[in-house]
Amino acid sequence: MQRLALVKNTDGKTAEVNLLISTACINCPTNCIEHNKSFTVRNKKNFPITVGDYVKIEMPKAMEISAGIFSLFFPIISATGAFLFLKRKTELCSIALTETKTFALTLATLVLAEAIVFLFSRMKFQLSKSKYIITQIL
Fold first, then answer.
1. Do 13 and 42 form a contact (C-beta atoms < 8 A)?
2. What is the pLDDT of residues 84-105, one digit of tens each?
3. Cα–Cα distance between 85 and 64 in angstroms, integer?
4. How far is CA 97 from CA 100, 107, 110, in A?
5. Three-state secondary-structure class, residue 40
6. Which sign does the torsion angle of CA 101, 102, 103, 104 carry?
7. Residue 19, class by beta-carbon neighbours within 10 Å (0-12 exposed, 13-18 middle, 19+ buried)?
8. Euclidean distance between CA atoms 81 and 76, whole angstroms
9. What is the CA radius of gyration of the chain?
10. H-run or E-run covering 2
């Protein structure tokens, strides 16, 4: 996701920026626009940025991809693991779990995993130079 920012201070390798409001701000829990918070980003491509420049910043692709993979596969793997665990537990302990109970417990695990992903996406993370890089000067 690309975001627009205004450079407040720079030393060449990093820049202190303020984000400009965008549609992504609607669902963001950090409220950095509202509180006028600034944060540091890396200038990996050594752009000749100066104070007052508008820049595009983004999270590295590897972080975006890993977040997407986590959001998609964590609930699926959790539910599959719960199902296989329940089947194995039933065989080893001679516990009589009906298909309905197995389904309900697997579904509960899926819902719990989805809730974890949802809560994780709403956590207030510190915006830091390790997350965002400057990709373009406007």
1. yes
2. 998 888 777 777 788 898 899 9
3. 31
4. 8, 15, 18
5. strand
6. positive
7. buried
8. 8
9. 22
10. strand 2-10
- List C-alpha distances in Å: 89 to 47, 99, 106, 111: 59, 14, 13, 21
Closest CA to 3 of 96, 67, 14, 32: 32
Strand pairing partners for 42? 14, 133
The pTM (predicted TM-score) of the whole model is 0.62
Sole residue written with tokens 């390790």: 130
- Which region holds residue 39: left if phi is over 0, alpha if psi is between -120 and 50, else beta? beta
User: How distant, in Å, are the alpha carbons of 19, 22, 28, 41, 83 from that of 15?
Assistant: 12, 20, 22, 5, 49
